[in-house]
Each structure stands twice: as C-alpha cells, then as structure tokens.
Amino acid sequence: MQAKVMLISDLNEFELISILSKVLDQGHASWGASDMNHLDLAIANGDDAAAWTPNSNYEVFTMDTCVENVHFKSEFSSWHDIGWKALASNISDIASMGAQPLYGLVTLGLPPTVNVQDLKEMYQGFADISEEYQMMMVGGDIVKSENVFISISLIGGASQSPLTRSRAKVGDSIILTGPVGSSKGGLLLSQQGLNSYNEHQTVLINKHCKPYPHVAQGLVLSNISNACAMDVSDGIFSDLTKLCESSDCGAIIDSESIPVDPELIKCFPDDFLKIAMSGGEDYVLLATVPANQTENLKQDINVSIIGEITPKDQGITVVAADGSKYDHNDFLGWDHFR
Fold first, then answer.
1. Which of 55, 65, 188, 234 qualifies as a FRET site for 270, CA 20 to 30 Å off?
2. Which domains does the chain have, with CATH numbers?
3. What are the DSSP calls for 106-168, one per residue?
C-alpha cells in the first residue's frame, strides 16, 4: 500500500516549522557547526530571533529571492538542488565582497498543495551547502502564497575591507576565477526535455543545478590592494558593464581568453562563446587587479586574464581572434524585466 503524501495543508504552521528546523539542526550537528571558531551563535533557531557575537572586522549583508517558474522549475531540478542553488546565489554575493558566509535566514512563500517531503529535501539542500561553506541557517519565516518563492538573507564576515565593484583603474587586468557559460548550457539542455543525456551534457546540467560559489577566491582577492570584484550571476558582459559603470571606466576583452569548460564546446560548438558571454549563474568571480599583481595572484588561485580596463570613452569592446569586434547585442545577459 502506497504511503499517503503529506501536504502542507495537512499541518499547521508550527508543525511544519518544527519538521524543517530538525533538518537544519541535524545538518549543522553532523559537521560540528557549534564547534567552529568563526561561528559564535548565542541564540539559535527556535526563539523569536537568532543572536550571535560578531568576531570579524566587517559584517556583510545580502539577500536574494527565487520565484518558481521565474528562477527555477521543479521539473528541471530536484528540490534538494533548488535549495542548494537558492542559498548559493547569496553565498556568491558574499564571496564577491571577499567575505566568509556565516548566518542565513530564509522566508518561504508556499501554496498549501506543496509536498512536505519536497520541502524537507529543499532544506537538506540548505543544510548540505551550509556544510560545504561552513555557515548556518538560523531561522526565517513561512507564509501562504500562490507560487513558491524562496527569499534568503545572508550575513558574512570579512577581516579586510570588503571588495567592491567601484575600484577598477585604467590599466588593471580583468580576470575570471573559473569557466563561464556552463550553467546556461545546462539550462538550455534541460529545456530540451531529452529522455537521457550523455556525459558531456550531464556535466553542464549539474553545473546549472548545483553551482559552487568562489568564496576562497574572494578571500584571496580581498588581500590585494585596489582589487575590484563582483560575481558572475547575470553573464560576463552584463556584469562587466555594471562594474565599468560603477568604476567609471571602459574595458577591452579578448574573446579567445574567456575560460570555458570543454563540455560546453562539445555540446554547443557553434554558440559556446555567445553562451559563455551571456550566461549567468556560474557564480565565479569577475575581478580587476593591478597588472603587476596578476602573477602573484596566480600562485594562490586559478585565474584567467581576459582583458584590460580602459578609459570610459572607449566603452566596452569584445575582440575576436581576427581583430574584429563583436556586436554587444550577442552578449546581453539576464534581466528580470526584459
């Protein structure tokens, strides 16, 4: 006899909170979160509010929201991966500031027809990525909604002055801390709805569903004077445009230097560059550093030098191997309202 599926409508609010809190508590206990020196939680999940003792020079705060059928579809991702990725987008913002993620809060908007087991899997995703990055989810809220939404607030700590996107200077080298385009490649493959995927396609789909933000790389960059950074969430060209606007500068990019996974080239041999330049959610870091610092940086982390900061009046140029310039419209990234 098949077990009855438990829906949110079968529980009251506090029963649901208790079930989900246990998933997080067990996850935190499994890796000894309470024994971590950088985590000093004084009042844990379950009270009216969480409280902790700050032990860093700077506190960094971010928040992000994911809405079903806008940012994710459960037909393309497991609920575990939906939870992982929702928190990953916030962790990546903290990483781009050169900080360590510490404490998170989540607000869920849920229709009463949601399966409770799906939510437990999503919270296991929160717990697993929290272990990966040595942070804790310490509370939140649940409200009734017509569509599922996940809104996460995250606190990070930094020992150095936080990185910003407004410090780029003419002559600085532009770098990426990892390959780009794989997440969008995975999304495009998922949308094809194939019955099975080969090994190259599976790599891209996994990178779309379960990204790993570059926290360690951000911490290294924070030790470089006059470094500038942001995460690649909306696509290189789109994010570089934001960085240049904040720093009042231009940029020239060598398309041949853009790092891409070989699987992206194999799956999209004709379009991989366009995908790499416009695809978001890779959650690597786009940064600028003084040119004389790049060799030292390469001793600590893997980076690709993809271009140089130029005067503002030169705009942003992407150069092909033959010296021609690409049309910017080929590389437009994610925009909620377009």
1. 234
2. 8-158 (3.30.1330.10), 173-325 (3.90.650.10)
3. EEEEE-TT-BHHHHHHHHHHHHHHHHHTT-EEEEEEEEE-SS-EEEEEEEEEESSPPP-SS--
Give the list of residues 6+ apart from residue 212 with CB closer than 8 angstroms, or none: 88, 132, 283
Contact 104, 154 (CB under 8 A): yes
Q: Which two tokens stand for residue 34?
A: 């309470």
Residue pair 180/282 in contact (Cβ under 8 Å)? The answer is: yes
Listed as own residue / partner, the contacts of 291-295 with beta carbons closer than 8 Å and 24 or more positions apart are 291/171, 291/172, 291/173, 293/173, 293/224, 293/227, 294/173, 294/175
CA distances from 283 to 115, 190, 212, 332 (A): 30, 19, 7, 17
Residue type, 203: V
Distance, in Å, from the CA atom of 157 to the CA atom of 155, rounded to the nearest integer, reads: 7
Could you report the average pLDDT of every consecutive run of 10 residues in the chain (338 residues)?
A: 78 91 93 87 84 91 93 89 97 98 96 95 97 95 94 96 96 98 95 89 96 98 95 93 97 96 97 92 97 94 98 95 83 50
Scan for tokens 């690409």, then name that residue: 326
